[in-house]
Amino acid sequence: MFQRIPDAPWIRKAENDGIPDPPPVFCPVCLEEAEIFYLDINKDVVGCDRCVSTADPYDTA
Question: Does the pLDDT at position 28 exceed 70?
């Protein structure tokens, strides 16, 4: 009753071989491999999880 439609070749390849890891991403500020970028209000990168830290504003005054 139902017609079986085969998967596309790239789907079969991904099922058999797995999906490759994405290439590493590097921070434009410190040039280290980064997992998270921090952006300013204009969406420009100001750093990454390795070169930017946070602080309580009352502790920095």
Answer: yes
Q: Which of 1-5, 9-13, 44-48 has the lowest mean pLDDT?
A: 1-5
CA 3 to chain centre: 39
Q: How far is CA 53 from CA 19, 37, 47, 56, in A?
A: 33, 12, 9, 11
As a whole number, mean pLDDT of residues 29-47 equals 95
Q: Which H helix or E strand runs over 38?
A: strand 37-39
Burial of 34 from C-beta contacts in 10 A (0-12 / 13-18 / 19+): buried
This prediction has a pTM of 0.61
Q: How far apart are CA 43 and CA 50, in angstroms?
A: 18
Q: Are 49 and 34 in contact (CB under 8 A)?
A: yes
